[in-house]
Amino acid sequence: MNIALKQTVALPDHADITAADLPDADVVIITEKDAVKFSDGQGLNHVWVLPVYAIIEPDLAVFVLKRLKDLKT
To answer: What is the pTM of this model?
Structure first.
């Protein structure tokens, strides 16, 4: 995509977010998870929301159970 990031901001989990919490930029990219946290919904015309999808492999449960078993020993 050839996008150069000028700044990243780590926001706290489970906190309301306002436009004032975002960097001063022409475009701000956030995840859907963070987009639903905006408490005021104001001043967000420059915000792009990025959907994030998790792909769980079928053998994930086997992998996790093996790791847990290995931790016990």
So the answer is: 0.60
